[in-house]
Amino acid sequence: MTSLLNVAHSSVAVPLSERVYWIGALDPQLRTFDLILKTANGTTYNAYLVRGSHGVAVIDTVKENFAEDFFRRLESVARYDEISVIVLNHLEPDHTGALPELLKRAPQAKLFISHKAQRMVKGLLKTDEAQSFTAVTTNDTVSLGDRTLRFLNTPYLHWPDTQCTYLEEEQILFSGDVFGCHFCDPRLFNDVVGDFRFSFEYYYAHIMRPFKSYVLEALELIEPLPLTIVAPTHGPILRDNPRQYVNRFRELSQPKLRKETADKTLLIFYISSYGNTAKMAEAVYAGASEIEGIRVSLLDLQGGEVEPFVDLIEEADGIVLGSPTINGDATKPMWDLLSSLVVINAQGKVGAAFGSYGWSGEAIGMLEDRLRGLKLRVPLQGIRVKLIPNEAELASCFQFGKQLAEIITEKQKRKVIDFEDLFKKDTPLN
Length: 430
Ligand code: FEO
Prior knowledge:
The protein has 430 residues and is of the alpha/beta class. It contains 12 helices and 21 strands. Helix 1 (67-75) links the parallel strand 8 (55-59) and strand 9 (83-87). Helix 8 (276-289) crosses helix 12.
């Protein structure tokens, strides 16, 4: 009997079925992916090959420095002149690193990509004479004779270009990054690898969670499909009860917190060295609390922990940040809080900043810039107070809170600031 562990050392393709093969690569040494994601035992770059009666399709490739493994595995099950179709579900370099060389070896192959991938593929191949490609969308198909590939447009999971590909006759979904995770186990299949649940959840939290609304749209396309196997581009191939992973995505895409009230919610975070920013925070809080239909919370970040607030912010309608300026900068807990928001979509929430300062007071503008960078609306100019706030300044803070609450509850016509929608400009999301 072949050892379950010999795949990593093998140069042959691994069958998913009689006509479908894994031709990917293992990267067990990787410890950080895309600079930020922890990969405790590495990752895999999964690529697949489908043989039909009239052609062979390659679905995705691998990271460039793993191309040799990919080509060796491909050559074990097909000749290059048999390849008629190359599907790119996602153009990130971990899946397209071997593409230029594959196109040299199989120049007759036609590329199938999503509409949003068109501009990217030209940049990737770095030639004006880019291989001819066909842009496809949901329910477009390509035939390999007795095998048919159907495309599902699933943008933003995890780049704007992403799509899934469904092999109709075998009910296999090649899902790209969706349902993937960074987990490297040469046994490959979910029923024989180690326990990868932590990795699946971690991957969802960091890659998919900011795009929950797109996950839900993708699930509308995926859930009706009969599924024998879900074959993602990273981590285990899901052949045992693939539906459970689809269901888990549905669960993870629901709001994390129980909705307690129909009211809008405003969170005021502050930190204070000498109590001055704290006084301002209390005044903002008092002003906001005057308005009906909004639930206002005042939260001191002095403890330094920010993770518990991420779920709260995801569900909130507005956040206000109060920080003194220290050494020309906002305080570290504020930056920690803001950097922790990368895992959620804060677009469109109301944001604001205030704080006391001794010399320069840059913190407020810096915080406002970051809020805008995260695509929050910043409808009011922040309040800066030199050292100790006097009665008039505290009254301004009170009004500031009141106005923000009115904007959130739409009692006051909001001042809309248009921010460029980076996603719609197809900017990769690294
Ligand atoms: Fe696995 Fe988004 O690339």
